[in-house]
């Protein structure tokens, strides 16, 4: 296993921090090797779980202690005429779901990547107008591109994600320190624990289409009001003017199927936040919500225990979300 992070010399460093296990471990690894980043950015899309928001805020204490810059929060600011201020509002207003539900990743690009780029390069006009960061000026003067550090670990999933990514573009160099160190998820967790930091939960929106079943149980048990908001988003999208939900193909309307005890029909198109299944139907059939789509809060402890049980059988035992 490699023990050294190799970075281009005399280039300014921007850590793209996500508030999860991998990017937190990356910060620990940098500290252990005496590498000080010049900027640490976190993109707040407005839909992160409260646990993640609080974790990122608390990280500033550790960053102060090790001599790193505090987290710079970045957020996309839509035009006032859109009528929304965040990704959730965008989905509700346009009667749609996050792009990941349709197999795309434009939500990450628009709501995470672009705001972090603006924090560096500045923005000349519009509601996000701001001046370039000092390290961007230095980069332009010296001709040495800013190095963006990305927290992809050495597990199969992240290796697959990074395999075909460019090592640089017109503005930045991209480096994956955890892959240089050959750190898998277990190594990341170990490094965070040895540093005396709490292990963060997975950083993702509360309405993320990539959520696993155990995470749905956890969300319903820990943050029922957020789970209900996600269910509302799904109903709004699947019954709105722009829905791809095909009543003829599915054999019934969306709301009718939610209340049905039947298995969710197979379809080639997205039928809900679960892509091939609707969160609303899953919640009703598993006793998570009542007929009005309201989380049965008296069962919160049961939901949390179900989450704990399912995650341990699904390779997520290190996640600290427990009953």
Q: Could you walk me through the main structural features you see in this protein, from its secondary elements to its overall organization?
A:
- InterPro entries: Rossmann-like_a/b/a_fold.
- This is Phosphoadenosine phosphosulphate reductase domain-containing protein.
- The model has no long low-confidence stretch (mean pLDDT 91).
- The protein has a five-stranded parallel beta sheet with strand order 3-2-1-4-5.
- The protein folds into two domains: 13-194, Rossmann fold (3-Layer(aba) Sandwich); 213-312, no CATH class.
- It has 14 helices and five strands.
- Helix content is 42%, strand content 7%.
- The protein has 323 residues and is of the alpha/beta class.
- The protein is globular.
Task: List the main descriptive attributes of the protein structure presented here.
single chain; 323 residues; alpha/beta; Rossmann fold; 2 domains; 5-stranded parallel beta sheet; 5 strands; Phosphoadenosine phosphosulphate reductase domain-containing protein; Rossmann-like_a/b/a_fold
């Amino acid at each position: 296993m490699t023990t050294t992070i190799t970075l281009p010399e005399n280039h300014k460093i921007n850590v793209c921090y996500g508030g999860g296990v991998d990017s937190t471990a990356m910060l620990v690894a940098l500290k252990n090797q005496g590498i000080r980043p010049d900027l640490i950015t976190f993109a707040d899309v407005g839909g992160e779980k409260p646990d993640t928001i609080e974790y990122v805020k608390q990280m500033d204490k550790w960053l102060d202690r090790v001599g790193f810059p505090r987290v710079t929060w970045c957020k996309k600011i839509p035009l006032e005429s859109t009528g929304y201020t965040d990704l959730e509002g965008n989905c509700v207003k346009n009667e749609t779901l996050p792009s990941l539900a349709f197999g795309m990743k434009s939500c990450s690009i628009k709501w995470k990547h672009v705001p972090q780029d603006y924090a560096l390069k500045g923005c000349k006009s519009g509601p996000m107008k701001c001046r370039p960061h000092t390290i961007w000026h230095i980069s332009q003067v010296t001709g040495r591109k800013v190095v963006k550090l990305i927290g992809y670990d050495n597990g199969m999933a992240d290796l697959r994600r990074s395999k075909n990514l460019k090592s640089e573009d017109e503005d930045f160099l991209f480096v994956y320190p955890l892959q240089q160190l050959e750190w898998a998820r277990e190594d990341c967790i170990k490094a965070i624990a040895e540093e005396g930091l709490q292990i963060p939960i997975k950083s993702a929106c509360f309405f993320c289409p990539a959520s696993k079943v155990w995470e749905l149980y956890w969300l319903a048990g820990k943050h029922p009001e957020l789970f209900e908001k996600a269910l509302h988003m799904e109903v709004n999208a699947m019954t709105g003017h722009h829905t791809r939900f095909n009543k003829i193909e599915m054999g019934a309307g969306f709301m009718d199927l939610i209340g049905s005890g039947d298995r969710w029909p197979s379809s080639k198109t997205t039928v809900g936040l679960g892509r091939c299944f609707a969160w609303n139907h899953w919640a009703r059939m598993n006793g998570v919500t009542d007929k009005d789509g309201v989380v049965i809060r008296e069962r919160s402890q049961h939901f949390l225990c179900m989450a704990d049980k399912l995650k341990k059988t699904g390779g997520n035992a290190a996640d600290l979300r427990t009953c």
